[in-house]
């Protein structure tokens, strides 16, 4: 079936939407908008205090209940526990939005021994999706996975071992994590052809949120510049909401969206061999850690 002949039926009203990092920034605005649209929103957050304050704000405004579950994306164990609770208590999501991410100025390792930016921004959505996907496939309803990327991907120098052998940090870690997320999404879209599940990447736009460091003079000035030209988080969220809920996105998969439209990626930096190598490398890493068997 071609994209133009697909019946456009997706209805966000009543759909279960899981948003990682939905307690603040662009994720919270996405949760708010989808809640207004009638979705049954679940925010997956590491800090339950912040999460319940976001839940209260959104519920007061929309009158639609918001669910909260604890999730620390820097821990594979937490991701597994979260998925079990999600499926057990609330069922299989119709939409999974892998929104949460960090920018770490310093080289820090996660509990599982992975550089923190790569752990949260790349390995976590990879693993979380791999746990939820078999349930989506079994249910066979139309479902959407949205990976929130960034136009920073185009600055990500591809490193075959994802920086394992170096002191990855700062912008190089952030840009590589977003490039890896794009490769992963495009690869998964190919594997999901002829299923009811689509996966797309979104660049939300630039917003002066908490993701940017503010603990040095350099970053205080940089953040001030970002603020001048930034979009409000509510505008940035529109891009994610579009990918998650628009009937125009029915059957569309493996794309990169920005400014409410499908954009061309900088193809000169993507290649199929790297994409396949990344998939195989990630599986090996997760197997080595005993995460995937
Ligand atoms: N802001 C921009 O200019 C911009 C531009 C391009 C792309 N993006 C992308 O947009 C998405 C949202 O970013 P944002 O700007 O809204 O940033 P933000 O305000 O810092 O929000 C990030 C969210 O991720 C959560 N998070 C971080 N580490 C986590 C962990 N280990 N476990 C669970 N949750 C964790 C944070 O939770 P806590 O509140 O507990 O820290 C927060 O809810 C990210 O994918 C980012 O890369 C942003």
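Sequence proposed for the structure above (293 residues):
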């Amino acid at each position: 079936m071609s994209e133009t002949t697909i019946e456009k039926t997706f209805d966000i009203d009543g759909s279960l939407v899981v948003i990682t990092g939905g307690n603040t920034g662009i994720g919270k605005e996405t949760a708010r908008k989808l809640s207004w649209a009638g979705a049954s929103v679940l925010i997956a957050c590491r800090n339950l205090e912040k999460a319940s304050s976001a839940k209260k704000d959104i519920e007061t405004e929309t009158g639609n209940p918001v669910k909260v579950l604890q999730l620390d994306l820097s821990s594979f164990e937490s991701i597994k526990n979260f998925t079990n609770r999600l499926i057990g208590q609330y069922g299989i999501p119709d939409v999974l939005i892998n929104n949460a991410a960090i920018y770490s100025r310093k080289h820090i390792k996660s509990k599982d021994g992975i550089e923190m930016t790569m752990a949260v921004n790349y390995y976590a959505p990879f693993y979380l999706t791999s746990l939820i996907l078999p349930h989506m496939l079994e249910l066979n309803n139309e479902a959407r996975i949205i990976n929130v990327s960034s136009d920073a991907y185009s600055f990500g120098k591809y490193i075959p071992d994802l920086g394992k052998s170096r002191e990855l940090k700062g912008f190089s870690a952030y840009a590589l994590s977003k490039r890896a997320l794009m490769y992963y999404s495009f690869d998964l879209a190919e594997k999901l052809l002829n299923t009811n599940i689509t996966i797309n990447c979104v660049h939300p736009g630039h917003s002066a949120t908490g993701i940017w460091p503010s603990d040095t003079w350099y970053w205080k000035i940089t953040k001030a510049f970002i603020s001048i030209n930034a979009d409000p988080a509510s505008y940035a969220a529109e891009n994610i909401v579009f990918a998650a809920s628009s009937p125009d996105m029915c059957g569309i998969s493996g794309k990169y969206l920005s400014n409410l439209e499908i954009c061309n990626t900088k193809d000169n930096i993507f290649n199929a061999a790297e994409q396949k190598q990344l998939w195989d490398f990630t599986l090996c890493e997760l197997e080595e850690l005993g995460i995937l068997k």
